[in-house]
Design a protein that fits this description.
Blueprint: E1 4-6, H1 13-20, E2 28-30, E3 46-51, H2 64-70, H3 73-78, E4 79-86, H4 96-105, E5 109-114, H5 119-135
Parallel strand pairs: 1-2, 1-3, 3-4, 4-5
Pfam families: Flavodoxin_NdrI
Protein name: Protein NrdI
Family: Belongs to the NrdI family.
Length: about 140
């Protein structure tokens, strides 16, 4: 199973960012778009990439599909970090879904990027993830 699990809405901004990371086959898994679809079952430690939805004070900012996935205890237990996507137009709510998930699951919010991310964001995340996984205990 994947080392990077992500959710992307129909805008596909997060999907395009993850595609640019150029992970090898089997390294990346996408959460289902529809909440009625069965969620994934994580099998090894992973980093979650998720967008934030615009909402007042963070309420409703975490996609329901992410909540459904993390409500499965075995998935939550394998979460090692979060990468948040957002839109700076939302000011203090920028990447708030990543902040919320990181706080609730007690994992680091490793990085934040806007919309589809820049080439610099991609390079920083690629390098950062390599270093992050080197520092993690073997599983």
């Amino acid at each position: 199973m994947a080392r990077l699990i992500y959710f992307s809405s129909v805008s596909n901004n997060t999907h395009r960012f993850v595609e640019k990371l150029q992970h090898g086959a089997g390294e990346v898994a996408r959460l289902p778009l529809r909440t009625k679809d069965e969620t994934l079952a994580a099998e090894r430690p992973f980093v979650l990439v998720l967008p934030s939805y615009g909402a007042d004070a963070g309420e409703g900012s975490v996609p329901k599909q992410v909540i459904k996935f993390l409500n499965v205890e075995s998935n939550r237990n394998l979460l090692r970090g979060v990468i948040g996507a957002g839109n700076t137009n939302f000011h203090e709510s920028y990447c708030i879904a990543g902040d919320i998930v990181a706080a609730k699951c007690r994992v680091p919010h490793l990085y934040r990027f806007e919309l589809m991310g820049t080439p610099e964001d991609v390079a920083t995340v690629q390098t950062g993830l390599e270093e992050f996984w080197k520092q993690q205990p073997s599983h």
